[in-house]
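2024-03-11 09:14:02 INFO worker-7 job=invfold-0412 stage=load source=structure_tokens
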């Protein structure tokens, strides 16, 4: 039995299609670019430690109230945004304070604590984004408050953190932020090396510092004839 679509039905479908196109036009899609880095800093009973990754992947979709160009006028308040960000656990490498390599053994132990074999990525999914402050000077960033779900070692917690957003031109954007989490909140036991009879203890708090570069996806080059 064939169904007839009435004029009202056609009008309704046309309106839905128009709304969908409008929504798509209102969204700016930005993908991860090179030049990003995430740093983790912590303490131990012997010395402070730091590890770093130069790989942050993912994307962010933002609405009209998100500044994608320098000097763009936007109003403080909630911003329509969707983002998923990830850092491969294996890309985290231990460093000395001067930036040189620290220890392969520490890397292996860190990956083990973070359960890399079963959970190879640190993942952040944005759920809320609010613009708190517009730039007070030409070179100052837009200040946001972000809320989302952070997954580490297979455990997910909701976190909030401030974000600084700096448009660089041509819709290229630098997003920076800092937050502190506890290893035990993600069911990770702070390491206490057995070789040191447990005398070396690692602090529970870990500081996350990141600089994420995003921008529009480049169109593929035309094939040579």
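2024-03-11 09:14:09 INFO worker-7 stage=emit residues=225
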């Amino acid at each position: 039995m064939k169904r007839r679509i009435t004029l009202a039905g056609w009008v309704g479908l046309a309106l839905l299609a128009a709304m969908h196109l409008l929504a798509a036009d209102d969204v700016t899609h930005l993908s991860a670019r090179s030049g990003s880095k995430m740093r983790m800093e912590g303490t131990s009973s012997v010395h402070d430690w730091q590890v770093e990754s130069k790989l942050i992947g993912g994307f962010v979709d933002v609405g009209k109230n998100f500044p994608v160009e320098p000097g763009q006028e936007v109003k403080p308040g909630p911003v329509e945004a969707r983002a998923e960000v990830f850092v491969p656990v294996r890309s985290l490498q231990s460093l000395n304070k001067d930036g040189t390599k620290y220890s392969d053994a520490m890397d292996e132990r860190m990956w083990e604590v973070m359960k890399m074999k079963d959970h190879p990525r640190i993942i952040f999914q944005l759920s809320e984004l609010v613009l708190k402050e517009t730039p007070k000077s030409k070179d100052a960033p837009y200040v946001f408050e972000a809320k989302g779900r952070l997954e580490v070692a297979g455990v997910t917690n909701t976190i909030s953190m401030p974000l600084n957003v700096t448009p660089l031109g041509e819709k290229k954007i630098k997003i920076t932020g800092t937050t502190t989490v506890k290893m035990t909140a993600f069911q990770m036991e702070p390491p206490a090396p057995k070789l040191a009879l447990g005398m070396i203890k690692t602090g529970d708090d870990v500081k996350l510092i990141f600089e994420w570069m995003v921008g529009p996806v480049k169109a593929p080059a035309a094939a040579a004839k």
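2024-03-11 09:14:09 INFO worker-7 stage=report msg="Helices lie at 7-26, 104-113."
2024-03-11 09:14:10 INFO worker-7 job finished
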